[in-house]
Amino acid sequence: MIVRLIGSDTLTDAGYDVVEAGSADEALRILERHGDVEVLFTDIRMPGTMDGLELARVVHERWPAMKILITSGDTFPPRSAIADDGRFLPKPYSTEVLRREIDTLLTL
């Protein structure tokens, strides 16, 4: 949870509007209500009925324009597991690298 808070604070400080979800299921419910989300940033290991890779797959199918950034400190998925222009950010990462990855995704 602390990592999520650091990421959220980092992106908020960088000027992004951040919406947090505690599970993949909650993330989907939020996305159904907020049609203006531009980037999904998810850990592979997260609570809920699906992991972050499955969440990213579902999000890509339902909202194909949404950019996807996946992170993990212990699982390194093959490129084929990440949809289209999605990116993988291995942990640990600095706050500057996180900001740069989000900025890059938003320019694709």
TrEMBL record:
InterPro entries, alphabetized: Bact_response_regulator, CheY-like_superfamily, Sig_transdc_resp-reg_receiver
Pfam families xrefs: Response_reg
Origin: domain of life: Bacteria
GO biological process: phosphorelay signal transduction system
SUPFAM superfamilies, alphabetized: CheY-like
Modified residues (4-aspartylphosphate): D43
Residue ranges occupied by any Response regulatory domain in the UniProt entry: 1-106
Keywords, ordered alphabetically: Phosphoprotein
Protein name in UniProt: Response regulatory domain-containing protein
Naturally occurring in which organism (per UniProt): Sphingomonas turrisvirgatae
